[in-house]
Amino acid sequence: MEFRHTCVVKTVGLRNAKAETGRQDGARPVVAPAPAGEGHTREAVVKLLLEEGPITATAIGTRLGLSPAGVRRHLDALIESGEARAARSAPWQQKGRGRPAKQFQLTATGRGKLGHAYDDLAGAAMRQLREIGGDKAIVDFARKRVATIVTGIGRLDRPAPEQVTDKAEEIAEAFTDAGFAASTRKVGAGVQICQHHCPVSHVAEEFPELCAAELEAFRELLGTHVQRLATIANGDCACTTHVPLILTVPPKSKTAQNPVAQPATTSTHDSGRSAE
Fold first, then answer.
1. Among 34, 8, 29, 10, which Cα is nearest to 18's?
2. What's the average model confidence in pLDDT over 219-223?
3. Distance between CA 210 and CA 207 in Å, rounded?
4. Which among 30, 221, 246, 264 would be 20 to 30 A from 115, CA to CA?
């Protein structure tokens, strides 16, 4: 989630603000939302949780000019997605009698979805690395990065179809742990490694060496030829790599020397491009 214009206007510096809004002296300016879609309002709620959380639902409604039902709708959605959490106010924070009011704040998941400048920083660092060490420095860095992700995964020397499938799953699990949301699926006479997210996609657009290093690691670990069908860096919905499941059968005659493709069951899960 990135914060852009949230269509809100602060009533700061208006001489009649106190009379028109009924605010007490020393009260914070009220933020009144302009007509906007649910997305803009949700962004405004998230921004308030980020900057001033923990904060009560009443305070959110006052600051953004939302009804209690509107505030609850957005908070419930954020809690359900794991982006926010609620906790009771401390006794010293309680005003008046009754049960302590709930206060809301972002979780680590919520903060992780906010816009940041990491891509710009990484891109600048990679460009500086290229200036200092040339293309070789970029390739070496990309290979070391992938080697870190697949640490502990052994190489297949004489791959059989079942072993290739298991190894592809092992690779997908390693990339999932690294933030790539990877999975495998069987398609025709092969298996595909699908990376549904790429945390470095924006940098990979400028430095394709990052993608090339991944493909090189797949070939090395699987001990067979693999083919990249799609990449997020090129605008596709997933990074999809096809791994053929081919078993060479000892020839019975001089005319029967071609590899035989072993059929595989096609999974119902489909993302990326198929290997048709």
1. 29
2. 95
3. 6
4. 30
* Two tokens, residue 219: 């070939």
Predicted local confidence at residue 235, as pLDDT: 87
Q: How would you write the chain as a 3-class SS string?
A: CCCCCCCEEECCCCCCHHHHHCCCCCCCCCEEECCCCHHHHHHHHHHHHHHHCCEEHHHHHHHHCCCHHHHHHHHHHHHHCCCEEEEECCHHHCCCCCCCCEEEEECHHHHHCCCCCHHHHHHHHHHHHHHHHHHHHHHHHHHHHHHHHCCCCCCCCCCCHHHHHHHHHHHHHHHHHCCCCEEEEEECCEEEEEECCCCCHHHHHHCCHHHHHHHHHHHHHHCCCCEEEECHHHCCCCEEEEEECEECCCCCCCCCCCCEECCCCCCCCCCCCCCC
Question: Which tens digit of pLDDT belongs to each residue from 230-247?
Answer: 999 998 888 999 999 975
Averaged pLDDT score across all residues of the chain: 78
